[in-house]
Amino acid sequence: MHIFEPRYKELVGECVADEREFGLLLEDESGRREVGTRAAVLEVLQVFDDGRMNVVVEGRERFRLVEETEGRSFVTAEVEPVEDDADEPADDEEMERALDLFRRLAEVTEADVDEPDLAAPALSFELAGRVDFGTELKQELLELRSERARLLRLAELLDRAVQAVTLEREVRDRASGNGKVSPR
């Protein structure tokens, strides 16, 4: 992350000094979301003369905004943890499907991505963190309260992405061959 606003330079500076986490919430034209993620600064890559910073952060546990508080230059709030519901866990087949689609997407995009940590408690977050689905879909996954539901939704998104990239490549390859693209 590139930290440049004075209030966030203050926040990140305190988090680094005190080895504390901070929270990230999506805010856009639809407003501020209630579910976000804790983050920790893993490394300060560069500090500029004017105090701007380039930092590496790691997403951690999810939280729900309970109530905003006041008194700081940056937004502060009371939060509570967001836990998954105790529903039916994802089975091996569902996990394998999502993992296979992730690998196929990496292959068709010729992307060099790290393999997910298969021992992580939530494979869905391991996979989603390695694919840019855009903020809205990432937020949707963050808000789902079931690993099984996240993996099923993720498999759907990965499958669509594989199909779209494959189709785009086929069209590009056919177009470069003769200058014409015709439907199949």
Main sheet overview = 5 strands, antiparallel
**Helix-residue proportion:** 40-55%
- Report the mean per-residue pLDDT as an integer: 92
Number of strands: 7
- Residue fraction in strands: 15-25%
Explain the overall architecture:
42% of the residues lie in helices and 24% in strands. The longest helix has 32 residues, at 147-178. The radius of gyration is 20 Å and the shape is globular. It has five helices and seven strands. The strands form two sheets. Strands 1, 2, 5, 6 and 7 form a five-stranded antiparallel beta sheet that branches. It has a two-stranded antiparallel sheet with strand order 3-4.
Overview in brief:
This protein is α+β, with helices and mostly antiparallel strands and 184 residues long. It contains 5 helices and 7 strands; from the N terminus they run βαββββββαααα. The termini are far apart.
List the helices and strands and how they pair.
Elements: E1 2-3, H1 6-18, E2 22-24, E3 27-28, E4 31-32, E5 35-47, E6 53-69, E7 76-81, H2 92-109, H3 123-128, H4 135-143, H5 147-178
Helix pairs in contact: 2-5
